User: Fold these one by one.
Assistant:
Number 1:
Amino acid sequence: MNRLPVNRLPVGRLEELSLGHVEGSLSREERAELARLCGEDRKALAFVAGEVQAARVIREALSETDTAAARERVLASLEALSQVAESRALKSAVLKRLRSRLSRTTRRLRPMRPIRSRPSSRIWIGAGVAAAAAVLLAVFFSGGPRTKPRRGIDVPAPARVAQVTSAEGGVDLRRSRDGRWAGAGVGAVVFEGDSLHTRGGPAHLRTESGSVVHVNAATTVAFETHGARPKLSVGSGELFVETTEDDRGLTVETPHGRVADTGTRFGISVGQGGTTVAVLEGSVSAWTDAGRAEVGANQEVLLKRRTDPPGEVREAKDLAARFCWARIQPAAVRPVALYLFDEGGGRTVHDRSGFGEPLDLRILDPHAVTWTEDGLDVVGRSLIRSETAAGKIVSACAATNEVSVEVWLRPASTDQIGPARIVAISSGSGESNLVLGQGTQYDGVGTKYVFRVRTTSPHEPLQLETPPGALSARLTHVVATRDAAGTRRIYLDGDMHAEQRLPGDLSNWKAGRPLVLADETSRDRPWLGGIFYLAIYDRALSEAQVRSRYEAGVQSARERR
Amino acid sequence: MDELIERARGGDAGAFGDIVERSAGELRAFIAAFCPSAALIDDLAQETYIRAWERLPAYEHQGRFLAWLRGIARNVVLEEFRRSRREARAAHVSLETLLEREIEHGAREPGSAARMGTKVGSLVECLESVSSDSRRLLKEFYVAGRTSEEIAGALRRTASWVRVTILRLRRKLAECVEAKLDAGGTVAL
């Protein structure tokens, strides 16, 4: 790499270190080197700061900013604002219009419109370094004169069919446009005509209509559409499908026959001996060229050959166990992460859910917390965070498209805002998957709970807020839920206090973010108070379940007295 | 835009919603340049719009609306800097602290909102001109937060190839921004 002196600094090295800093991959020695360079030379510092800023802007600009989301969020806040400040600009007529607008159907995302530049005597990254970079650019681009950046040509993409929401053992995708297999990861979009192959473990996908397709290891699935419905073709291996209402009529083709969903959860195992179709809920129609069978809940049928009629429909046993790889949820709701705060001391809060690998929490500032008989009091600025990423919560919720957060807590005061983070799945360097917080900064009101869930909705991240005054500094049972249809609710002591529907799914949740309590990882949204119980579910608790859990908690408290 | 502003000044929140929708992308990119945590961009953008709504009656058409909005955002960002500094007085000056101070220093300079707005706008425009493959690579690195090792694995390339390619793209973007700033033009909105 070419290196030019800028105050005797090798620019190439500075660039490499800056990139490593943005990437977060610097070793301790490299960090020390970069800190030394920045501390000794102002131009180097300006260069690296410029690189950091540019990285942030690139990140934001390429994140396909959801402008409609910002709109709805602001409108919702204005509405909330009006509730505490009637003397301000909002009057009842405006509120009516706001509500009307908020209830309208979602708009399509409007892409960010670039703005045109105007003359400026300043440059992006500092005069000396930029001049050197320009020389380097000339070397990198054949030394010729500067040319206008070439506009990329985007080939129109085929229709999206599904997206990979988790892949436990790696997946390969074969794109229809070039027929080549290539590795893919979480977030990969499957288009019409593409095929997916799972390697060492299952993968989970969500269709455009919200259905979930679980693909077991060593299975190849081709994705097509039939009318507006997905059509999956499986040569060998195993699938488990959970369809939404919009995907009624989804079909699965195998070498031995065809299955059409009529609103259900069902599994398909394709082997040399035929195709077994097993239904956990609802019913499906199974065809061969010689006949058809209706298969109901807890039933199965074997399709041996296309030329033979379907076999006898018989009772299917232990389906949940047979398809356990698909993480089929049992009827009883079990948390995917559970904290009882009964340790009584120490720096670790243990995950007692028994679901997957324990996601224990670490108290980073033990001097700022007090263990009590009932739980943990956060009395000073303290971050409590999982030692590893909350991947198990993310993948479980992405598979069901639902989430619930249940907390018994006592806020230390009613003036905490930010929202002050009670519970979040969030990374300091990235956006949050989920936030349950107290108070809003825009109006300075700390007497409300705030619930944010990152979704693919064009209106995300519109936050749900309880009315002002709903929060007080007393022991409270708080449950925030988000169901597969997109309805979010906040319950306080068993009663629903806020509700809003926001379509979309959770497939854009990032698995690498930790579970945090009492602050953001960036340490700028502290929350103080007592936490006595925390459970996170990959299901939306129903109103009855919330009520029942509240009453059970009250009973438990009484028994302890 | 002027018509929307006029309606919003008259208390039409729907019109203000339209303004938000039109300007949110650019405003967020502007805030992102200063904001140490992406998690805060939502909060700071929200705060900016609420203040803008409250100050709309005082807004006059003497300037561009986005520039006015950026001025509000700059104040919100500076308040956030003050707040975080107050809450975290670290005795040890880390690399991150050093960089944030430098960014804050830049934000405090007179006229910084307009200058940064122009730079951000140019960079956003330059990003539009990169090829789709390059864009995908940038997204993997900057948006998805994948390391060069991870990207290299997916692309069946070496990590050093990924790093060099991203460095080249960064240089190309820097050159593009510089060219736009040199060439001049007007800022929309």
Number 2:
Amino acid sequence: MKAHDTAESLLIYRIARCRLVSPPGQIEGVFSSDAMQPISASMPGWRGVVTLGERQLGVVDGVELLGLSSGAPGTYLLVLAGLPLAVLVDSVEGVVERDALQSCALPAWLASSTAAAGLKRMWRLPDGGLCYELHWDASRAALWAQRWEARI
Amino acid sequence: MSVAFDAAGSSTEGRLLLFSLRQEWYAVELGRVAGIELVGQITPVPGAPETVLGVQDMRGQLLAVIDSARLLGLPPLEHGRHVVVLAQPDAGIGLLVGRAEDIVSCDLTTGLEPVSEGNDWVKARLQYGEHLVGLIDVPAVVRKLTSS
């Protein structure tokens, strides 16, 4: 399935108890975690590998990438655009138009923590729930991508 | 439920809000408390210190909810009922506690026994009935959290 149909739509998904949205261009596609194949036990931290055409992508748990303490086993794979990675997430909830999001402000002293994790800002969704806007290219995914490329 | 306090008023001088954490009791000066909220849905904050459970929406403002038990060196609090909102508007900090128990008046100069050793965040103790209550050094907690 294509992650985004229009330039204005953000994908909503969940990792552990965090709801996240990512802008167009950050996510190449969404797959079931059934597409994941086991990976060598000699590569700790990696959850598996997924093959897309001639590309092999390393699978990382979103909980690990965001530095969250715990989460349910992921059931979907987000293929990150421009990185050789797929991220396990708990669920994919749909899309939301950016215009439908309301801005929220984290306490300033927490903002630096979230920025380091690639979380640009916080929004309130139309259902009233809170979500983070996650830019994967500014997250720890870049480091994991380097690790994945180094193994080849 | 939401209870607001007038932190600027002189009527709060020498009054303490007592709360329980598991089997232990602690207190904060009422003048440093903006209010008490029921704990709500807490959204984790990736990358935040371990004591930060997440943020809770408080009528449109986000409140960082701190696990008071973990802050005080106790096992993490699994079932807190109340969030004690600190009177630090810019910091947006709430302490998750087991339950807010009571508000008492106390002579802050003679009714407290200073604590020089042990937990960094407990600056004095007082006896309240059968409970030995630790008075939390709120400014020190806020400084620690907001500089981490």
Number 3:
Amino acid sequence: MDCKTVMHKVKTSLYADEPAYRAIDFMIDNHMRAVPVVDRDGVFVGLLSTERLMHFLLPVPVSMMRGTKCVSYIRETPKELHRRLAEMGTHSVGGLVDPYAHVAYPDTGLIDVMIHLSEKQHVVPVVERNNNKLLGVITFYTIIEMLKESVK
Amino acid sequence: MSANEAHTAASLVLGMNPVWPATLILIATYALLLTEKIHRTIVALLGSSIMITLGIVSQKEAFAGIDFNTISLLTGMMIIVAITRKTGVFEFVAIWSAKKVKANPTGILLVLSFVTAIFSAFLDNLTTVLLIVPVALLITEKLDVSPYPFLVSQIIASNIGGTATLIGDPPNILIGSASGLTFTDFLVNLGPVAGIILLMSVVIFYFLWRKQLKTMPELQQKIMMFKESDTITDKTLLAQCLSVLLLVIAGFIIGEHYNIRPGTTAIMGASVLLLITSMGSSEKVQSRRLHDVFSEVEWSALFFFMGLFIIVHGVEKTGLLELLANKLLSATGGSLSVASYATLWISAIVSAVIDNIPFVATMIPMIDSMSAGLGGPDAIVPVWWSLALGACLGGNGSLLGAAANVMVAGLGDRAGHPIHFVQFLKIGLPVMLLTIIVANVYLSFRFF
């Protein structure tokens, strides 16, 4: 099995030039933990996940690479979280995504995607090999749906 | 392999005296390290492999040239620190200190400089800044003050603190291992001057930044609300780590009387800590913990040292370093004081520009060679102190002067507060020159 036979199409796209708040609403409304983000030509620009958004809600010295993780001594107020949420809102969606997210191609074997889903990402975008246009996505649920269909 | 055999082997490859290919390898290594285009470990391993392949040293000789006392000391301390850092004790001390000065920004700047210097004296500088700088950044964020003074003071304090002991900075480890100078020797001879220099630097920090470090009382109150005791999540582990750390330091001091080298003491301490933290756990859990601890050991740094030892050993074998030492000796007119001062200033200037580790590794055999001309191993002890002071304090001369400087700059950059090369130079270079002058005066009063 390869990715093109398993992937499902993305119904509504999230665009890189949209404001960050739209992404948060989009993810809440669709109960999604990770969304592929595209530009207006449909080219994949990165993956936006709740983990990634949570990074922006943390103080920078904690969330940054090699930051301090031993911060149990802090008791923050909702006001401080609001301030960071407001700061996050000033970004466009494109400024929040992980541009190095793993992608698959239509002819990539499903097994490779399954390994990534088991270890790193909740969603693996499937893109065209020559122009990076988003074709669809594969998640754990996509695979289960495909298996249910195959039994029928 | 004798020098003649080495000559023959090298001649077979390049048809020239081995001193030339060895010199070329050394220069190329320095040049590549200076450009920082290729990771320093790759440079050292490549240089050492070429040294062996060309037959300048045999594999057996090359491996014999590796100073395993240094490697063991570094590995042992890395393991102990990897376990200890999980206890949260470093964050505890940083927050506790900040609260002791009522969260006054200038007070925190000064007190964190002392904390970093003290930690740097007993842990490696990189680890210290990695633990303290993010906490300092967090505090500055809460106080809404510029993090720049904190970043710069952390760099300077870590380099000064590292000067004070045998284990504080890699150049000291190299010097101690090669010269046979003990932990106590370092503490007694370099501790006081490092203390004076630290105090002087802290006074400079105070006058330099006290006016711009202003905040509001309600923000200070935020820091005062920090519950530092919450950082300590495992008190048993903390007790185990601190006990082992104290025993290891005691071992460094006592071991020297029983011919137990610091490398053995550090590995013993690391093994004991691994043992007591693993007791009662299943084999699977022990294996996972061991894997976690070993993943925090800086293997690339250890391999860098090994490669470097081989390169320097190869160059030493060709007689080049002895030749340079003789030239240096005649330039100093055989005067111990001139040799000491020259070593101090040259080391400081070179260490401000390039990594001080390869420089010190190259200088060690040269100073060894000068020993006879300067009155023997006991007489040249001040030259060793000059090398240690110059190499460690020279790191403050520029942002590239020490690995800890680059690390702090990287942390600052990631937090959105980059330190620029020239910006640091304006403070780092004058501080470096001032501290070297103090070191020079100290050497002249203490030894000449």
